Amino acid sequence: MASYIVRRLLLMIPTLLGILLLNFIIVQAAPGGPIDQMMARFEGLNSNASTGLESGGGDGNNGGSAQRLAGVNEELRQQLTEEYGFDKPAWERFGLMLKDYATFDLGESLFRGQPVLDLVLDRLPVSISLGLWTTLLVYLISIPLGIRKALRHGSAFDVWSSGAVVVGYAIPGFLFAILLIVVFAGGSYLNWFPLRGLTSSNFSELSLLGKIQDYFWHITLPVLASAIGSFATLTMLTKNSFLDEIHKQYVLTARAKGASDRRVLYGHVFRNAMLIIIAGLPSALIGILFTGSLLIEVIFSLNGLGLLGFEAVMQRDYPLIFGTLYLYTLIGLVLKLISDLTYVWVDPRIDFGTRES
After folding, report:
1. Mind listing the domains of the chain with CATH numbers?
2. Who is most buried in 53, 141, 285, 292, counting CB within 10 A?
3. CA max distance for the chain
4. Distance between CA 75 and CA 314 in Å, rounded?
5. DSSP characters for 80-145?
6. What are the tens digits of pLDDT across the range 8-35?
7. pTM of this prediction?
8. What is the pLDDT of residue 292?
9. Residue 23's closest CA among 258, 313, 342?
């Protein structure tokens, strides 16, 4: 097992490099880089200033002013290009980025003036909070539902509950979020929940109990919207796992010895059937954290990593884009390794080292 862990850790390096290289090429090829974004802002400010001067009376030298402004813009563009290192070849910039990332120096945001690592750490609790509560809700509902479906396989309850979870799986999370807002957040019907943020403006003034209530009051709708698409997979996995265990020989033997159905279910079947479900928890957390949070955070104005990454892409903030991508990929690879090790922990019969050899 030790050799397997070492091989997996070593394999993370080329995987991480490949993901960063591919995304570096794609982002560099996209039009409208950070220098273009800066120049657009500068030219917009100059345009507003020129409009103000013209409205106050001109001196007839607009043509000369335009030429001087064009010269200033070109000089400023050249200065910015050199200052931020965009005059270097792409391969050299990529190499310097990897060198800094090896020491977790993610650079500084071009438009926010803060270190990327500080921005990520500031937004990380929001995304983790949303992901953990979503995962907990999904497991608390899907596992009991899957067990009941297995025990009543083929019944009317099994049929209509399967239809319900499949419909929920087919509904995009962002569409369900909009529906929740319309119905419960003052859209057209009820005004039970807040629309924006994770806490109220007076959160610091509340008591401990008030802070807890305020937090859950704000997190309810985002968690429901994030969880809607995750019920089907875990529910059907739980059902099929229990069905597979129920028909095994040891269950028939236990029943033949006079064990009650409850004893058979929770004393034998439950422990074995839950192995694959428990072991899949890290993988489920990866999916919830990194695939469903962006639009939910945008819709509910939650300052999490999803919204931070979206804003970075829109602004072409290269250090922030690649810094968040680096941390996303690294966390995902580590959680994937933990997921594999969890299988061994819950079922010692599994030996990845023997299987690979």
Report:
1. 2-49+65-101 (no CATH), 117-356 (1.10.3720.10)
2. 292
3. 105
4. 25
5. HHHHTTTTS-HHHHHHHHHHHHTTT---B-TTT-SBHHHHHHHHHHHHHHHHHHHHHHHHHHHHHH
6. 888 888 888 888 888 888 877 777 666 6
7. 0.72
8. 56
9. 313
